[in-house]
From TrEMBL:
Record keyword Metal-binding present: yes
Annotated positions binding substrate: 181, 262-263, 270, 299, 355-357
One term of GO molecular function: metal ion binding
Reactions this protein catalyses: N-acetyl-D-glucosamine 6-phosphate + H2O = D-glucosamine 6-phosphate + acetate
Listed name of the protein: N-acetylglucosamine-6-phosphate deacetylase
Annotated Amidohydrolase-related domain residues: 62-428
UniProt KW Hydrolase keyword: yes
Pathway of action: Amino-sugar metabolism; N-acetylneuraminate degradation
Keywords: Carbohydrate metabolism, Hydrolase, Metal-binding
Positions contributing to Zn(2+) binding: 170, 238, 259
Active site feature: 321
């Protein structure tokens, strides 16, 4: 115990010899952590007269907020859209493995599937608090699933793996023309008045963090409004929507674009479609439209990546869109109900040239984004941390190194290779 004036008997850790990402720039200063949260050193010194119990020498490394992946379908042989006898164990395996890539929180993503899959792959009815954040109701993860559907447990991260913030349901309410790798026979429209279709398909919306849908589908307006009112992020994707339809969806509460440029109408100067949201003057002034980018060097040409970033840098969110084959050798694997063939760094629907997710890791995406876009180190890191946290409404406790935020950290060298990962101030992986 450093001093009898401290407000807590918990040990204090001081990270020294580091550059920390704060206020959009790397700063040479120490980082102080207690009880899983980042401390204000001024209050510690002058109000508590406290000192560090232990010091971690970072040897000049960068400390950034832990990465948050809002679109990841699986990896390491695990497919979140496949109902197995041990779905929970599969999610735990991926959660553990992605720690080495700097990911401290993620949204397990389920692609278009038959209703019985959603009913089998669900979340727990047990309430769980997100690390230590006391400042936002968004950081609470608690759900009630239909009866025995308790396969995926939403939980805080730790040595066992990255934290699960909720599910991302990508489909089946998407466009037939832009279905991509989603199986056509399971696509749905809003026929029963909107929300009834969602409940009939998913079984529940409790603890769903994000839903991707096509805004041009009839009756989608009321669905977007209802989802947004429930605090669920609405993403526009797999769509042939024109700009006017996309703008109306944003005005109704949509705030994200699923993998920009992919599975949507290509940009056209007379009607830029969903892509036009990046510079639309019809977006409410108090709102930000975020957009996902799969920066794996395959899904989006580097020139297109640069165009998007320069048009709307504060909205770019890096996603892996990783599938079961991430971390596996070339060959045939699954994504939901489809067979996927891995050829080099490409993932195709077997027998076609239709891209089907990626096999990239988040740290790979960060490095490629910086190299391809010419952005700063700070911008590359914030696209994988601050921006997804802002999108999900949890930036007061995740995605930043501000005082009071969760001490979810990633240590990187100057080439942006991950050297260590911390969750709630505890080391959970080191190279």
């Amino acid at each position: 115990m450093p001093t009898n004036k401290s407000v807590s008997k918990a040990p204090i850790t001081q990270f020294v010899n580091c550059r920390i990402l704060r206020d959009h720039k790397l700063q040479r200063e120490d980082l102080w952590v207690r009880e899983g949260r980042i401390l204000d050193p001024e209050k510690l010194f002058f109000d508590e007269e406290g000192y560090a119990d232990q010091r971690v020498d970072c040897e000049g490394l960068i400390i950034a907020p832990g990465f948050i992946d809002v679109q990841i379908n699986g990896g390491y042989g695990i497919d979140f859209s496949q109902a197995t006898s041990n779905v929970r164990g599969g999610v735990a395996l991926v959660a553990k493995k992605i720690l080495e890539h700097g990911v401290t929180s993620f949204l397990p993503t389920l692609v278009t599937s038959p209703p019985n899959i959603y009913h089998k792959v669900g979340t727990t009815s047990t309430p769980v608090l997100s690390t230590t954040c006391p400042v936002s109701h968004h950081c609470l993860t608690y759900t009630i699933l239909p009866k025995v559907l308790t396969e995926v447990k939403v939980q805080s991260g730790g040595v066992e793996g990255a934290g699960v913030l909720g599910c991302h349901l990508e489909g089946p309410f998407i466009s037939l023309e832009k279905k991509g790798a989603h199986p056509e026979q399971y696509l749905r429209s809003f026929q029963s008045g909107g929300m009834l279709d969602l409940i009939e398909t998913y079984g529940t919306l409790d603890n769903v963090a994000m839903v991707t849908l096509a805004p041009e589908l009839p009756n989608s307006e009321m669905v977007v409004r209802e989802l947004a009112q429930r605090g669920i992020t609405v993403s526009l994707g797999h769509s042939v929507a024109n700009l006017s339809q996309a703008e109306e969806a944003v005005q109704n509460g949509a705030s994200f674009i699923t993998h920009l440029f992919n599975a949507m109408l290509p940009f056209h100067h007379r009607d830029p479609g969903i892509v036009g949201l990046l510079t639309s003057d019809q977006v409410p002034q108090d709102r930000t439209v975020f957009y996902g980018m799969i920066a794996d060097g395959i899904h989006t040409n580097s020139a297109a990546l640069r165009i998007a970033h320069r048009a709307h840098p504060t909205g770019l969110v890096l996603v892996t869109d990783a599938i079961t084959a991430m971390g596996l050798p070339p060959g045939h694997h699954t994504l939901g109900q489809q067979v996927i063939e891995i050829q080099g760094l490409h993932a195709y629907v077997a027998g076609t040239k239709t891209l089907s997710g990626s096999i990239a890791t988040m740290d790979m995406c960060v490095r490629h984004f910086k190299q391809a876009s010419g952005c700063s180190v700070e911008q590359a890191l914030e696209a994988a941390s601050l921006h997804p946290a802002q999108l999900l409404g949890i930036s007061r406790c995740k995605g930043t190194l501000d005082y009071g935020a969760d001490a979810d950290l990633v240590l990187l060298d100057d080439a942006l290779n991950v050297r260590a990962t911390y969750i709630a101030g505890q080391e959970v992986w080191r190279k």
